[in-house]
Write a structure and sequence with these properties.
- By secondary structure, the protein is of the alpha+beta class.
- The chain has 6 domains: 3-57, Helix hairpin bin (Helix Hairpins, Orthogonal Bundle), CATH 1.10.287; 89-321, DNA ligase/mRNA capping enzyme (D-amino Acid Aminotransferase, Chain A, domain 1), CATH 3.30.470.30; 326-424, Nucleic acid-binding proteins (OB fold (Dihydrolipoamide Acetyltransferase, E2P), Beta Barrel), CATH 2.40.50.140; 439-510, Orthogonal Bundle (DNA polymerase, domain 1); 516-586, DNA polymerase, domain 1 (Orthogonal Bundle), CATH 1.10.150.20; 607-678, Rossmann fold (3-Layer(aba) Sandwich).
- 37% of the residues lie in helices and 20% in strands.
- A hairpin with a 3-residue loop joins strand 16 and strand 17.
- Helix 1 (3-29) packs antiparallel against helix 2 (37-53) and helix 16 (516-522) packs across helix 17.
- The radius of gyration is 28 Å and the shape is globular.
- The N and C termini lie far apart (66 Å).
- The mean pLDDT is 86.
Length: 679
């Protein structure tokens, strides 16, 4: 073949890719196709045939490169450059008003502009584009680290492999991290379940589970058969472009070829947000996909930056959840479960009932006090709802249907698992088994330790852990790393063999070098979730420093209150806990410690509170300057506050600062401190 003819073929391949990307943009983003499906298929077939004949011209961003990948052994971990935080929930319209009051007070304004977006019932993901090409995709995971599902995301046709848009679109940035929700339409979900039942496979519980299960297939070719879609709703790290508002983010993503929900709305105040929530709730059942609420965000990104984040969620956004769907059923019995902390939780055993598309057989009853408050009895007809459309809960009793045979429930006096006496502390509503050797607690703590957000030991799930504890292979967490000595015994268990045991032991071995945050979370310290573990790791940098930290040092950290500080402090002063950690180290655990935060400027890590009016800038501008120099801004004065900046006509914060001995700065002194921070 001559060079000229080869050049012509290459140009035709490039032309076909451009045409296909353009028609994908019209179909998936603008919902206004210009050509028929048959004409599109003809273009795709021609491209595929040319690339098969000339594999030297195939590139990863070609529209043909969406399927045909080899199955993976496991998913690799991916760190998010900017954390994907969760959102606080608003269950009532009054919660939206309270949200508005909080942010306007912090910003010193009457109200702000918002963007209201449908909350899609799917799986959150991040797409990373470099110079316009899709290079990596991951699940949200714990918000800091997710699973690399790049190959699976490539199979979703509404995710462009190359960003594509009209000429008037801004230049594509060199790095763009896009956040979105992968979901499945309700009709597609029902058709998938019919197919699975026909093939003798168990059906998915709901569209969200179907989407999550499809995206987390180790074989991308299976994912490619599933009808997954995506709506993009935000960005993480962006290099090479600056956005000013959330509305601009959404409109620009759309111009770059990314799919954005058509029902998003810019609202001039919270009243318009409330109206949108009401209107959207009316039409949500007419949509082809599931949605359980509305996400409300402050539109101005500079205001978002000033508001910042709490320990788990941004202050500038909230998720308004629609009232849960309810159903009537009969409460057959009440069982008591024992958690990893020894907490006893009563669980309602129900006659199966469909609630919002999910078959519910069990529902939480929380605790004895809650059962008495609602007067729930065994045999009652009850109203069940899925709180937040997720967690089944008994709402109330239909007392007019009582027959007189119903039995009141009383909390057990002995642990249903180990038989130890149970206790209830005066300041708690929860009964607890205090036997640290209780099998239920041992099982719960091991399952937690091995979970994905903790040590991530694949294959050591709830059923396997329960079996191993019952067989005596696991007596505490450290025994996980002694399983290699029991390989022959494990291979004799039903359902096990050399391959499965080898895979499990390899996963155990691979878990021996956790990050400090993962290790802290894995220990199961009360009140220390994944986000709190990250805060501790970032603030202290080493396990040794955390273990020796005083109560005052712990409470000085922004986001850690007295209750959490006491839990951490006492955990590391319990001899059994110290022995466990020592055993783990002797068995080969090496914690990857983080570099502690360095005090680079006079403001680094310092907490400021403002009171009174400033003459040189607004309070919001002052807050932003503090944050730019590494400081924090709080709305209340406490012992943790480093500086209170006093303007004209200061309020009660000034008096409280003097009473607590907190350093008080005049506006002039504050400006000098800012100058020092910039030097």
């Amino acid at each position: 073949m001559g060079a000229r003819n080869k050049d012509a073929i290459y140009r035709r391949i490039l032309e076909l890719r451009e045409q296909i990307n353009y028609h994908n943009y019209l179909y998936y983003v603008l919902d206004s196709p210009e050509i028929s499906d048959e004409a599109y298929d003809a273009l795709f077939r021609e491209l595929k045939e040319l690339e098969e004949k000339h594999p030297e011209f195939v590139t990863p961003d070609s529209p043909t490169q969406r399927v045909g990948f080899k199955p993976l052994d496991k998913f690799e971990s991916v760190s998010h450059a900017v954390p994907m935080l969760s959102l606080e929930n608003a269950m009532r319209e009054t919660d939206l008003i309270e949200f508005k009051n909080r942010i306007t007070k912090l910003l010193g304004v009457d109200d702000v502009e918002y963007v209201a977006e449908p909350k899609i019932d799917g799986l959150a993901v991040e797409l990373v584009y470099e110079n316009g090409a899709f290079v990596r995709g991951s699940t949200r995971g714990d918000g800091y680290t997710g699973e690399d599902v790049t190959l699976n995301l490539k199979t979703i046709k509404s995710i462009p492999l190359v960003l594509f848009g009209p000429p008037e679109a801004p230049p594509v940035p060199s790095r763009l991290d896009v956040r979105g929700e992968v979901y499945m339409d309700v009709d597609d979900f029902e058709n998938l379940n019919k197919e699975r039942e026909k093939n003798g496979e168990p059906p998915f519980a709901n569209p969200r589970n179907a989407a999550a299960g499809s995206l987390r297939q180790l074989d991308p070719n299976i994912t490619a058969t599933r009808p997954l879609k995506i709506f993009c709703y935000g960005v993480g790290l962006v290099e090479g472009h600056t956005f000013k508002t959330q509305w601009e983010v959404l409109q620009t993503l759309k111009k770059w070829g990314l799919r954005v929900n058509p029902h998003v709305k810019k609202c001039s105040g919270i009243e318009e947000v409330v109206r949108f929530c009401r209107d959207f709730q009316e039409i949500r059942h007419t949509l082809p996909y599931g949605t359980d609420g509305v996400v409300v965000k402050v539109n101005d990104l500079a205001q978002q930056s000033i508001l910042g984040e709490k320990t788990r969620a941004p202050r500038w956004a909230i998720a308004y959840k629609f009232p849960a769907e309810e159903a009537v059923t009969r409460l057959i019995d009440i069982e008591v479960q024992v958690g990893r902390t020894g907490a006893l939780t009563p669980v309602a055993i129900l006659e199966p009932v469909n609630v919002g598309g999910v078959t519910v057989r069990r529902a939480t009853l929380h605790n004895q006090d809650e059962i008495e408050r609602k007067d729930i009895r065994i045999g009652d007809t009850v109203i069940v709802k899925r709180a937040g459309d997720v967690i089944p809960e008994v709402v109330r009793v239909v007392k007019e249907k009582r027959k007189g045979t119903e039995k009141p429930f009383k909390m057990v006096e002995k642990c249903p698992v180990c038989g130890s006496k149970v206790f209830k502390l005066p300041d708690e509503s929860i009964f607890r088994c205090l036997n640290v050797r209780c099998p239920a607690q041992i099982k719960g703590s091991i399952v937690h330790f091995a979970s994905k957000g903790a040590m991530d030991i694949d294959g050591l799930g709830e059923k396997i852990v329960s079996l191993f504890v019952d067989k005596g292979f696991l007596k505490d967490i450290s025994d996980i790393y002694r399983l290699k000595d029991r390989a022959e015994e494990l291979e004799k268990l039903e359902g096990f063999g050399k391959k499965s045991v080898s895979n499990l032991l390899n996963a155990v071995e691979a878990s021996k070098k956790p990050t400090l945050a993962r290790f802290l979370y894995a220990l199961g310290i009360r009140h220390v979730g994944e986000h709190m573990a990250h805060i501790l790791a970032e603030e202290f940098g080493s396990l040794k420093r955390i273990m020796s930290a005083s109560l005052d040092e712990l409470m000085a950290i922004n986001g850690i209150g007295e209750k959490v500080a006491h839990s951490i402090y006492h955990y590391f002063r319990n001899p059994e806990n110290l022995k466990l950690i020592e055993d783990l180290f002797q068995l080969g655990i090496e914690v990857i410690e983080e570099k502690p935060v360095e005090q680079e400027t006079p403001l680094e890590g310092k907490t400021f509170v403002f009171t009174g009016a400033l003459s040189s800038m607004t309070r919001g501008e002052a807050s932003q300057k503090v944050k730019e120099l590494g400081g924090r801004v709080s709305n209340s004065v406490s012992k943790k506050t480093d500086f209170v900046v006093v303007g004209e006509n200061p309020g009660s914060k000034y008096e409280k600062a003097k009473k607590l001995g907190v350093t008080v700065l005049s506006e002039e002194e504050f400006l000098r401190l800012l100058e020092q921070g910039r030097e």
